[in-house]
């Protein structure tokens, strides 16, 4: 143990196990009963125990290699307790929470075993609540509205509205937000709540239903020490009162806040430096030669001891080597050889033995109809208040409508008005509708909020799609009718009201189609800029293949005619509007032509000039447009639903395939290092068997050689 020399102010001869003087029982100061999870305990009846063993997360950096983010983590979280996950920035806290919550993205790969009540169950979509590090909130709502809407969405219909309101208000008060209750949340470009207040709003929404499993990523970030204390105290209180299992990553808690945690998981560079009762951590550090100086906050001390990011700035230790990496190595090794580590495994075994209850989606939530109504109201409110959603578009459309009105003012009915009418109608049905992509940033924000709420099980995709469609209808009607009327009457198209209403309805259908298309794009394409580019690209193709810029008979057969011409909604919009305008009109012949030519009928223009399909009426074109709206919305719903149901299945298949091919990317160090925890566990004689009788998991541990 020479490597320890001089590393700590009170160096111990050998790394010492903190539990040695407790006869091998892991007892935290805050944990009254180490067998809290006993079979008769009330807490185990409906609660969730989470265990993880030898969890590795790696990220592929190039073709040849992957980098480990988490390295062989083992531990548990139990009902009624709060587990604090601490460590320097970048040590893997968020990744760890993502891994446990089943929310790793496709770039990061997981190996190891994560069990919920002793069972292998997917956690995402509705079984747990997760407050992520970034706050994704609807910026136009006030705190009170946001939390109240959330309460109506999540709490069951059997609960009276007054009680839901009361719960929302009480939660707002508990999070110290009563003074900010009437303030709009705000976001990019419109300042509202402070970051700390936004954090607390996010927490409010997730604790409304008292979820059995709660992940909190940095719940106290941006909060002063007093606010942090009260927020954490309330969370600890809720955990105890409702048998909630809480895992919270925290940055530098004050000593008061630190004292609230039951267990501590201290990470450094993805490895466990310490896992156990938080009250035992000082002893662990002290016995290994790094005692917390008097009057110093213990969490400050731990983080300073294990933070390797600033090794270069620290006075070089022995032989000029950076000190912190060595300190970490010592602590990690010491922890792995401690009784504490072995007892954690024993406790995991105990949890597996007694918890064998299935975890279902959060049972208590509002019915589909309530969710649909609440979401429609919330979405309408957001669209109404967000200037960028529709109001800016209305303004732009009015300006363009006035411009069109002046450019084509009093179009008349001479021969040359045939071409002018065609150009005007095409412009309206293509370029005016393509501008609906201006609302794309707002769609993306909506989708982010939806994604967060869906993952936390607040409501389903169906309610969201329906509500989003319905709430946009009044605004789309407004932006089709007002600019439509300005253009229509300034230009002087066919004067009857029926013709104008057809024109405006077609414009409305086109706007709905473009919005639906952009929604599909936003749900498929991950980034905002890529979405904008992809959306406008698709629409560009559709306009080009719509049969105006190149007449239908001249379109190349492959791709452009079949299938694009028939799939492009612009084709039906052009044809419907052309029929609406030209049918019944008569134009004089071409004055430039030498040949004797009489008046030309509108029907003739449709057939010969624009090559419009006149086998069916303009109403069929309109009906096809509305059918397309339904199909696009169904595709949007399908994409959301597929992501929800197929993603976990694809993940499982890919992981099984990689394993079979021997390409499961656990840390390469694991293969080379016999000291890795996974290997060590098997070296110590841990034997896992999974019997299939009734889905019950049996874990046989033969602690050969370790004396437990
Ligand atoms: N998809 C990814 N691709 C590459 N590296 C990643 C990816 N996700 C995480 N990492 C890396 O993994 C490490 C851990 O990241 P993580 O966000 O979990 O840290 P953290 O402890 O939560 O940090 P903080 O306290 O700053 O939030 C970081 O070094 C990060 O750069
Ligand atoms: Mg983080």
Describe this structure in words.
This protein is of the alpha/beta class. The protein has helices at 43-46, 93-101, 143-154, 161-174, 195-207, 225-242, 255-258, 281-287, 298-306, 323-336, 339-354, 368-385, 387-407, 417-434, 440-455, 461-491, 497-524, 528-544, 564-567, 569-582, 602-609, 618-660, 668-672, 677-683, and strands spanning 50-60, 66-77, 82-86, 108-116, 129-131, 213-217, 245-250, 263-268, 271-277, 558-559, 562-563, 586-587, 600-601, 686-688, 699-701. The two termini are 25 Å apart. Bound molecules: adenosine-5'-triphosphate and magnesium ion. The site of adenosine-5'-triphosphate (ATP) has 13 residues, from helix 2.
Tell me the layout of helices and strands.
Elements: H1 43-46, E1 50-60, E2 66-77, E3 82-86, H2 93-101, E4 108-116, E5 129-131, H3 143-154, H4 161-174, H5 195-207, E6 213-217, H6 225-242, E7 245-250, H7 255-258, E8 263-268, E9 271-277, H8 281-287, H9 298-306, H10 323-336, H11 339-354, H12 368-385, H13 387-407, H14 417-434, H15 440-455, H16 461-491, H17 497-524, H18 528-544, E10 558-559, E11 562-563, H19 564-567, H20 569-582, E12 586-587, E13 600-601, H21 602-609, H22 618-660, H23 668-672, H24 677-683, E14 686-688, E15 699-701
Parallel strand pairs: 3-7, 3-8, 5-6, 6-7, 10-11
Antiparallel strand pairs: 1-2, 1-4, 8-9, 12-13, 14-15
The structure holds adenosine-5'-triphosphate and magnesium ion (MG).
């Amino acid at each position: 143990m020479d490597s320890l020399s001089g590393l700590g102010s009170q160096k111990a001869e050998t790394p010492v196990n903190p539990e040695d003087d407790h006869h091998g029982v892991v007892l935290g100061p805050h944990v009254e009963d180490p067998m809290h999870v006993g079979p008769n305990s009330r807490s185990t009846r409906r609660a969730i125990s989470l265990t993880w063993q030898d969890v590795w997360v790696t990220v592929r950096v190039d073709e040849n290699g992957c980098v480990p983010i988490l390295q062989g983590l083992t531990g548990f979280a139990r009902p009624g307790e709060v587990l604090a996950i601490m460590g320097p920035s970048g040590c893997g806290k968020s990744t760890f929470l993502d891994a446990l919550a089943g929310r790793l993205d496709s770039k990061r790969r997981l190996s190891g075993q994560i069990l919920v009540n002793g069972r292998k169950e997917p956690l995402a979509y509705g079984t747990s609540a997760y407050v992520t590090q970034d706050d994704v909130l609807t910026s136009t709502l006030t705190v009170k509205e946001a939390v109240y809407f959330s309460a109506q969405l999540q709490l069951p219909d059997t609960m009276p509205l007054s009680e839901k309101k009361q719960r929302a208000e009480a939660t707002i008060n508990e999070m110290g937000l009563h003074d900010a209750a009437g303030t709009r949340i705000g976001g990019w470009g419109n300042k509202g709540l402070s970051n700390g207040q936004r954090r607390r709003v996010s927490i409010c929404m997730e604790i409304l239903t008292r979820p059995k499993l709660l992940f909190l990523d940095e719940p106290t970030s941006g909060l002063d020490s007093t606010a942090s204390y009260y927020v954490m105290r309330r969370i600890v209180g809720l955990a105890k009162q409702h048998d909630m299992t809480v895992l919270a990553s925290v940055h530098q808690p004050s000593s008061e806040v630190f004292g609230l945690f039951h267990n501590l998981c201290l990470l450094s560079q993805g490895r466990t430096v310490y896992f156990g009762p938080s009250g035992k951590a000082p002893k662990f550090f002290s016995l290994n030669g790094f005692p917390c100086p008097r009057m110093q906050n213990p969490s400050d001390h731990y983080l300073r001891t294990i933070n390797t990011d600033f090794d270069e700035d620290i006075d070089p230790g022995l032989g000029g080597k950076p000190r912190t990496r060595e300190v970490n190595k010592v602590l990690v090794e010491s922890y792995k050889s401690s009784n504490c580590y072995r007892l954690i495994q024993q406790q995991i075994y105990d949890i597996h033995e007694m918890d064998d209850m299935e975890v279902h989606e959060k049972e208590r939530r509002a019915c589909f109809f309530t969710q649909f109504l609440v979401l429609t109201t919330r979405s309408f409110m957001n669209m109404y208040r967000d200037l960028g959603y529709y109001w800016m578009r209305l303004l732009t459309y009015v300006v363009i409508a006035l411009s069109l009105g002046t450019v084509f003012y009093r179009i008349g009915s001479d021969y040359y008005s045939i071409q002018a009418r065609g150009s005007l109608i095409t412009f309206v049905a293509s370029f005016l509708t393509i501008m609906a992509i201006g609302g794309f940033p707002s769609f993306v924000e909506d989708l982010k909020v939806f994604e967060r709420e869906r993952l936390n099980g607040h409501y389903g995709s169906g309610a969201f799609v329906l509500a989003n469609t319905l709430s946009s209808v009044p605004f789309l009607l407004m932006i089709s009718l007002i600019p439509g009327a300005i253009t229509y009457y300034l230009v002087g198209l066919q004067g009857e009201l029926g013709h104008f209403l057809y024109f405006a309805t077609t414009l409305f259908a086109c706007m709905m189609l473009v919005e639906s298309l952009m929604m599909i794009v936003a749900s498929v394409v991950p980034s905002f800029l890529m979405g904008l580019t992809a959306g406008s690209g698709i629409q560009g193709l559709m306009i080009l293949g719509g049969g105006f810029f190149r007449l239908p008979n001249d379109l190349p057969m492959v791709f452009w005619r079949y299938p694009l011409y028939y799939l492009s909604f612009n084709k039906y919009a052009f044809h419907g509007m052309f029929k609406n305008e030209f049918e019944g009109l008569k134009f004089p012949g071409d004055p430039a032509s030498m040949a004797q030519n009489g008046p030309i009928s509108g029907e003739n223009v449709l057939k010969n000039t624009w090559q419009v399909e006149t086998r069916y009426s303009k109403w069929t074109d309109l009906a096809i447009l509305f059918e397309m709206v339904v199909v696009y919305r169904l595709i949007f719903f399908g994409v959301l639903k597929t992501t929800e149901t197929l993603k976990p299945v694809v993940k499982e298949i890919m992981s099984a395939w990689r394993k079979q091919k021997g390409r499961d990317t656990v840390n390469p160090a694991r293969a080379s290092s016999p000291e890795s925890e996974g290997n060590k566990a098997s070296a110590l004689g841990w034997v896992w068997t999974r019997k299939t009788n009734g889905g019950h998991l049996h874990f046989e541990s033969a602690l050969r050689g370790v004396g437990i």
